[in-house]
Description:
This protein starts with 5 loop residues before the first helix and ends in a 6-residue tail after the last helix. The longest helix has 21 residues, at 116-136. The chain has helices spanning 6-9, 14-20, 29-33, 59-71, 105-111, 116-136, 158-164, 174-180, 202-215, 284-290, 339-352, 354-359, 402-414, 425-428, 439-455, 463-471; strands spanning 25-26, 46-55, 77-80, 96-98, 148-152, 169-173, 188-192, 197-199, 219-221, 226-230, 237-241, 244-253, 270-279, 297-300, 306-310, 316-324, 363-373, 380-384, 389-393. Strand 18 (380-384) and strand 19 (389-393) form a beta hairpin. It folds into three domains: 6-33 and 148-192 and 270-371, D-Amino Acid Oxidase, Chain A, domain 2, CATH 3.30.9.10; 35-137 and 201-269 and 375-428, FAD/NAD(P)-binding domain (3-Layer(bba) Sandwich), CATH 3.50.50; 439-471. The strands form three sheets. Strands 1-17-13-16-15-14-5-7-6 form a nine-stranded mixed β-sheet. Helix 4 packs parallel to helix 9 and helix 4 packs across helix 13. It contains 16 helices and 19 strands. It is an alpha/beta fold. The structure holds flavin-adenine dinucleotide (FAD). Flavin-adenine dinucleotide binds at residues 55-61, 80-83, 87-90, 92-96, 98, 225-226, 254-258, 261, 274, 276, 307, 319, 369-371, 395, 397-401, 403.
Amino acid sequence: xxxxxxxxxxxxxxxxxxxxxxxxxxxxxxxxxxxxxxxxxxxxxxxxxxxxxxxxxxxxxxxxxxxxxxxxxxxxxxxxxxxxxxxxxxxxxxxxxxxxxxxxxxxxxxxxxxxxxxxxxxxxxxxxxxxxxxxxxxxxxxxxxxxxxxxxxxxxxxxxxxxxxxxxxxxxxxxxxxxxxxxxxxxxxxxxxxxxxxxxxxxxxxxxxxxxxxxxxxxxxxxxxxxxxxxxxxxxxxxxxxxxxxxxxxxxxxxxxxxxxxxxxxxxxxxxxxxxxxxxxxxxxxxxxxxxxxxxxxxxxxxxxxxxxxxxxxxxxxxxxxxxxxxxxxxxxxxxxxxxxxxxxxxxxxxxxxxxxxxxxxxxxxxxxxxxxxxxxxxxxxxxxxxxxxxxxxxxxxxxxxxxxxxxxxxxxxxxxxxxxxxxxxxxxxxxxxxxxxxxxxxxxxxxxxxxxxxxxxxxxxxxxxxxxxxxxxxxx
Length: 477
Ligand SMILES: Cc1cc2nc3c(=O)[nH]c(=O)nc-3n(C[C@H](O)[C@H](O)[C@H](O)COP(=O)(O)OP(=O)(O)OC[C@H]3O[C@@H](n4cnc5c(N)ncnc54)[C@H](O)[C@@H]3O)c2cc1C
């Protein structure tokens, strides 16, 4: 029998939503907040040569540049970014930095059971390395190893907690979970420690990485969209841009959800819009009522899940739930403006934390960004054109931490090294492509519909989702 979710049962009145959204800006809070740190960089013009050209100025490109220079300070490294550093997913995300390289343990165990222990260890090392790198380069990005709470908000989710628990995680009952964050709808939680999850200010993080890379000698060019690759001359790749060309000895593709420059990658990912909102800083009495002093990252266990963090100054970010695929995989600024979807997010946040509605806490920002969804929900990497081009994509909404790991894998590969990382089956395989249109739109639409249906039927996955699970295929954000 269909039931309403907690978010629907406790929906606030329309007037409260109208008031919350009365003065909300369309745009990513992080990019606004870090605007004073934004640097304007030149665009490419004319003919240039370089040792390593990195296409894309998000986390994947930035980590690759930083580590390339660390490995070989004399190497010439250039980043070519179509718009501005971190304007895309890297400047708009939830700021949740997860140790997991496999998009969670369930996905990792199901797909790579034989090497799961190794993947876990490498994931922990990656998060430790992240913290170490930020300290070494003096990057102040509000990085904090706050841990996470995966909260049950429906009765049917409570038994899942003990099933999900592993050595590193503890189950909290409703009282213990609410002692951390006083949300009346929480019925229990899995707690992950700071060894597993950190949070940060994504734009400060990206700008800090860009500045650190530049200090090491990396050249970053903005408003420099690469239109195509020419690999006909031996030993080099020629990148075609509107106002010039770059001859590169090696190339890294860090273009995430945007149209792939290699034909083989065109159907490996689909761009999916994910939506988020940010509140004003909470008044002191509201903060006191909510608690959340540990500032844990929070996510719920619904199929269409929400994620959240609270910033050091006490703003709440709330995102997720609906993930929207535009037929044909189109990426357009207009798709970021979905008032109904943003309103639903506010409604769900107020249902989760009714103290916000009671106090009339306002939403200052609403935005969206594209996620590079792959059918295996986790990054894939590869080499192309006789080892001259490396690529990484497919993070499926959990790429802030893994981008650093993928950068290392690509650099190992380009250097011709055989390492523990390059030998992972996860890194040697790519997963299954999405079908061509219109099948992609139909399949993704059915998945999304089925996930919503599962949330309204005690979490029971219908025949379509079970078939997708059995095939190891799926759709997630
Ligand atoms: C709303 C939202 C919330 C998210 N929350 C989280 C989270 O909490 N935790 C987490 O781990 N992940 C999260 N993610 C995902 C995470 O942000 C991404 O996985 C990560 O930022 C990917 O980094 P990237 O560098 O690969 O891609 P991007 O940041 O998308 O950068 C790719 C860059 O490539 C450039 N580019 C593309 N094509 C070209 C070309 N032809 N020439 C030149 N430049 C080009 C683009 O302009 C872009 O700047 C979220 C994503 C979104 C959208």
